[in-house]
Task: structure prediction
Amino acid sequence: MNQTNRTKLPEYCVWLGMKKRCNPHYNRERYALRGITICSEWVNNFDQFYQDMGKRPTANHQLDRINNDGNYEPSNCRWVTRSFNQQHTHRSKLVTINGEEKSIRQLSEQYGISYSTLRERYNRGIRGEEILKRQRNTHTNH
Result:
């Protein structure tokens, strides 16, 4: 693939964005200080990135790291929808229920419990299926 054609691909813009995110001068706290890097095969080789990742399924898909603390590399990257990606950021509070990891936002939508209620329970250290249960008031008035 020649240089001119490659720069017009949406995947090329994704690749450049990945490189920018890992630049320590650009996003130091979220990437460099966490030790997140780009594998040697991709860092200066868009063609290898494209070969490994393939064409982006739709314009609504973004590059995602499966393990949010892992590096950009073939075994840790995939294409996901924008809405999926927004629910699985490093800021997401995740809870495992029935062996499945879900964000508080997903649990709120699935079980009809307000997001703020679930977030408060999470912040109090309540995890697993307990987060879905109505909590008794533990304060007593004497």
User: Anything to note?
Assistant: The chain has a mean pLDDT of 85.
